[in-house]
Amino acid sequence: MQALMLLLWAGALLGPGSCQDNAGSLEDSPAPDTTGVPVEEEDPFFKVPVNKLAAAISNFGYDLYRVRSSLSPTANVLLSPLSVATALSALSLGAEQRTESTIHRALYYDLISNPDIHGTYKELLAAVTAPQKNFKSASRIIFERKLRIKSSFVAPLEKSYGTRPRILTGNSRLDLQEVNNWVQAQMKGKIARSTREIPSEISILLLGVAYFKGQWVTKFDPRKTSLEDFHLDEERTVRVPMMSDPKAILRYGLDSDLSCKIAQLPLTGSMSIIFFLPLKVTQNLTMIEESLTSEFIHDIDRELKTIQAVLTIPKLKLSYEGEVTKSLQEIKLQSLFDSPDFTKITGKPIKLTQVEHRGGFEWNEDGASTAPSTGLQPARLTFPLDYHLNQPFIFVLRDTDTGALLFIGKILDPRGI
Q1: For 162-182, how does the pLDDT look when each residue is reduced to its tens digit (9 = 90+)?
Q2: Which fold has domain 66-214+318-362?
Q3: Can you give the three-state secondary structure of 378-399, one letter per residue?
């Protein structure tokens, strides 16, 4: 059993956590494979249909992140898996049983019994994109030119996912302009226009876009932000703006098996960011990445203890634009690109050819209050604690209400993607 080693408090060890092994399992749960696990029936949190669906598609998100990270071992990774999952879930409305099952297995729908997956998805999207969340997400299905689409596919797509499919004109300049205009409208201009041409041989293009600008529950003092060293490795450092709070209230735990310090900072709108900081700058992040599941993150959320610490964190403004096609092909979805059955969409043979993702993510000193919430009473420590995000780390943006994974990042260099 992986112990989340918690802090010494008034001379006593704060009891062991019930965290998971490196694949993310609980001690008394069946050991899953490393690509995700079923949600726990015993936990009341996961009995809520929206939360159970959020856990399923979040596990898909961790799978997608792991593949994406392995394809970019020396680069930052920024991903909002929810936008990609939404596009796939919407596409499954047009799939016959064999192809629908392929998509549903990748999204872990086969592990939940919900007769109205798409209706529940509508609830989830409404919950996580509520105005107070500061999170925007949108997805779109784009089809090849002159395709005749069945109205029986369009109607449920609009009902559950609030979007209509787009049919390409065949004019790459006009098609790119239309897609850019749609992205700008959905993201309120927060994501830059793309210059990537839309390939002429597209059959089905999925597009997922997301943007988040966090607001801390407790703001940072801009006067304490200064240029400090960020250690890329043992030998190389870069100077980046680091925000600082000498008396930060955060939730903390030390995971001895993963050799990392875990911290959680609250954001407004019932959101939080969980940081995974290796004990050594040279430590490979793979073991931490392999442990990530909805259930592991849920356990962390329950087990971390509120403490006061000296905190430094880099200001962050990241963006990503590119394909996740290859990543999806490696997580059970290759058949969608070969010979899928989308006869609920059209009578013509069509297949998935490209999946694009655009994301923007930032945080700065902004916060709701200059003082910590009076409801947060930190544990008394027998030693001072520092938490400095001054070396490569992983972060997870999570919606506290539903448990949904909204963004995940591997930050090897905070200066940008």
Answers
A1: 999 999 999 999 999 999 999
A2: Antithrombin; Chain I, domain 2 (3.30.497)
A3: CCCECCCCEEECCCCEEEEEEE
What's the CATH class of domain 4-23+35-45+215-316+367-411?
mainly beta
Q: Tell me how far apart the alpha carbons of residues 356 and 345 are, in angstroms, rounded to a whole number.
A: 21
Chain mean pLDDT for the chain = 89
> Which secondary-structure segment (H or E) carries 183?
helix 172-186
- Residue ranges per structural domain of the chain: 4-23+35-45+215-316+367-411, 66-214+318-362
Taking the CA atoms of residue 100, residue 104, residue 106 and residue 112 in that order, the dihedral angle to the nearest 10 degrees is: -160
Strand partners, 363: 316
In sequence order, the 6+-apart residues with CB closer than 8 A to the CB of 181 are: none
DSSP state of 145: T
* Residue 97 per-residue DSSP state: H
Q: Note the residue count of the chain.
A: 417
**Residue 300 contacts residue 250 (beta carbons within 8 Å):** no
